[in-house]
């Protein structure tokens, strides 16, 4: 599984802390897994405060460059990463763990 350093930008997109209605939120990102020939990538489905469809999230990731999104060998590793760290992504797409694991 890839290791990320605190403060490392792992998504090229922005993830403001706001709900779809514009009110402040405690969660700022939703993450999903996408399988590719080289492995499984974790791609946000909530970007710039907007909830994206699966197709729109993938299209956005392709436009930003798929290589800019975390790559895991297996879907299980990617899902484990999401479970452990979905709340550790700041508004600028950086890995900001609340505690070191």
What are the SSEs and their pairings?
Layout: E1 31-36, E2 39-44, E3 46-47, E4 50-51, H1 54-64, E5 71-72, H2 75-85
Antiparallel strand pairs: 1-2, 2-5, 3-4
Write structural notes for this entry.
- This protein has one domain.
- It is built from two helices and five strands.
- The chain starts with 30 loop residues before the first strand and ends in a 16-residue tail after the last helix.
- The mean pLDDT is 89.
What would you say about this model in short?
The chain is α+β, with helices and mostly antiparallel strands and 101 residues long. 22% of the residues lie in helices and 18% in strands. The chain is built from two helices and five strands, in the order ββββαβα.
């Amino acid at each position: 599984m890839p290791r990320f350093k605190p403060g490392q930008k792992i998504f090229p997109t922005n993830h403001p802390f706001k709900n779809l209605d514009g009110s402040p939120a405690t969660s700022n990102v939703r993450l999903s897994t996408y399988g590719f020939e080289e492995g499984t990538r974790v791609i946000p489905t909530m970007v710039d405060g907007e909830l994206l469809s699966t197709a729109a999230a993938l299209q956005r990731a392709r436009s930003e460059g798929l290589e800019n999104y975390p790559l895991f060998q297996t879907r299980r590793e990617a899902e484990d990463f999401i479970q452990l760290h979905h709340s550790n992504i700041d508004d600028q797409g950086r890995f900001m763990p609340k505690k070191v694991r």
